């Protein structure tokens, strides 16, 4: 047999190979002169006896997209962690910040004061998330706006922490500071998620990484926030400020992959309007976040009043939901890349709503913890597929606005969770509040089934591109 390998046909890459030496099966050394000044190889050339003759350059062990995915997920985690730190001890915090029923109509009861403190932040989210997305897409930049939003958000948290020291700020002023802090923080959060959308590697994977970050931030933020509140009600604010400073410093480690297209705000908005199918993930994002807002406020107070729990134990009970919700998001997102978005979103939402009803019907702390864990698993199935669907449907030059729209819907959902849940629970009791919120989750899934069937949102080349890239 002639030991000289056949020359590969011309292809994409070209390498100069003057002489190749190899050993045959009989250990005889053979020199193979170059056929031309440049041997063109589409792939590594293999002989029958020794495998690779001219090995391709080895790819780095960790692709830059993988590294950036980890960093961005860590930043999303930090922003969510800082936000959730305040939730378990919110009633104690607003009292420390000056909530007084005799001095403010927004503080008639501890529930009212807590509700308005949370509503103020999400009202700011709703008002400003679209602005951040428009500016980012119009300029083709993400990083500088994330830095600005995170640093300004840190200053907002620090200003709130200083309120007890100043001592003369009415509760309405506290709510105004909360609005400013929320308006800045949402920029860091939404645009960091948009940077994840810009990465290669599969939309489900990227949004699964975002989901893990969100879930872990909530899972760890709740118990840590409860423990910090037990030490000092102001401590969660100080930790949140420090974390946002870190976000502003670390985001520069990631390449800014925003499409370098400068478009007007009107053109961006018109582009989103031409994609009415985005209303599907927006609707699910609204209801999913509504349930999260419901648990953050009403669920916290429900566990404390019904089972007599303190802030620390309440945080641990909330963690029963957020722990599986966090750790399962990446594999669930990858699963949706393979099987499509319909089953995870529609079937998962129906089961998720049923799980919420079980939490409200739980007679004891152990059964409530088990039900919360089940809801967390189902939430992990729904959330990354919903966020990935936004990426699937949006044009790459409009991802900032598309994700801003999703976060706008989510922020409205949080507001709905606070307002609807708080109002229903305050006037009609916790049982009806759980029924309303769980029923909404089931209803949105049932109503959208025909839409999903018409769109045939099954696995496609677009969904599975990340699988091929990472194969």
From TrEMBL:
Keywords: Membrane, Transmembrane, Transmembrane helix
Residues annotated as transmembrane: 70-94, 114-135, 147-169, 175-196, 208-228, 234-254, 282-303, 309-330, 342-362, 368-389, 401-420, 432-453
PROSITE patterns: MFS (PS50850)
Pfam families linked: MFS_1
Gene Ontology molecular function, alphabetical: transmembrane transporter activity
Keyword Transmembrane: yes
Residue span(s) of domain Major facilitator superfamily (MFS) profile: 277-471
Assigned GO CC terms: plasma membrane
PANTHER family for this protein: TRANSPORTER MFS SUPERFAMILY
Name the record gives this protein: Major facilitator superfamily MFS 1
Species per Swiss-Prot/TrEMBL record: Natrinema altunense (strain JCM 12890 / CGMCC 1.3731 / AJ2)
């Amino acid at each position: 047999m002639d030991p000289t390998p056949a020359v590969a046909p011309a292809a994409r890459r070209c390498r100069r190979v003057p002489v190749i030496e190899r050993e045959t099966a009989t250990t005889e050394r053979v020199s193979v002169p170059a056929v031309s000044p440049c041997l063109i190889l589409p792939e590594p050339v293999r002989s029958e006896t020794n495998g690779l003759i001219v090995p391709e350059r080895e790819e780095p062990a960790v692709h830059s997209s993988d590294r950036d995915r980890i960093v961005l997920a860590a930043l999303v985690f930090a922003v969510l962690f800082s936000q959730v730190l305040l939730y378990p001890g919110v009633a104690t915090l607003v009292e420390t910040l000056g909530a007084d029923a005799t001095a403010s109509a927004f503080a008639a009861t501890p529930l009212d004061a807590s509700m308005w403190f949370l509503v103020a932040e999400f009202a700011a989210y709703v008002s400003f998330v679209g602005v951040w997305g428009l500016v980012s897409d119009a300029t083709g930049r993400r990083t500088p706006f994330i830095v600005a939003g995170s640093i300004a958000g840190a200053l907002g948290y620090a200003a709130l922490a200083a309120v007890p020291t100043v001592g003369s700020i009415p509760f309405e002023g506290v709510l105004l500071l909360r609005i400013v802090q929320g308006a800045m923080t949402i920029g860091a959060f939404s645009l960091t998620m948009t940077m994840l959308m810009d990465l290669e590697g599969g939309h489900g994977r990227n949004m699964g990484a975002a989901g893990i970050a969100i879930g872990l931030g909530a899972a760890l933020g709740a118990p840590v926030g409860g423990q910090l509140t037990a030490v000092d009600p102001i401590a969660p604010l100080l930790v949140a400020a420090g974390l946002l400073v870190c976000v502003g410093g670390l985001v520069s480690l990631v390449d800014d992959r925003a499409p370098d297209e400068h478009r007007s705000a009107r053109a961006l908005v018109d582009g989103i309007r031409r994609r009415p199918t985005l209303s599907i993930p927006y609707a699910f994002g609204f209801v999913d976040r509504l349930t999260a807002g419901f648990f953050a406020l009403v669920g916290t107070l429900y566990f404390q009043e019904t089972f007599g729990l303190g802030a620390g134990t309440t945080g641990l009970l909330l963690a029963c939901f957020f722990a599986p919700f966090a750790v399962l998001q990446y594999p669930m997102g990858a699963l949706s890349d393979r099987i499509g978005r319909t089953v995870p979103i529609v079937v998962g939402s129906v089961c998720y709503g049923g799980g919420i009803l079980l939490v409200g019907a739980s007679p004891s702390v152990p059964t409530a913890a088990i039900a919360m864990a089940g809801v967390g698993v189902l939430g992990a199935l729904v959330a990354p597929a919903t966020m990935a669907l936004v990426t699937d449907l949006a044009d790459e030059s409009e991802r900032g606005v598309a994700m801003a729209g999703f976060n706008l819907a989510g922020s409205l959902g949080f507001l709905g969770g606070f307002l609807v849940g708080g109002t229903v629970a305050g006037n009609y009791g916790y049982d009806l509040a759980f029924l309303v919120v769980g029923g909404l989750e089931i209803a949105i899934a049932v109503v959208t089934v025909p839409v999903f069937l018409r769109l045939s949102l099954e696995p496609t080349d677009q969904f599975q591109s990340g699988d091929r890239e990472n194969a």
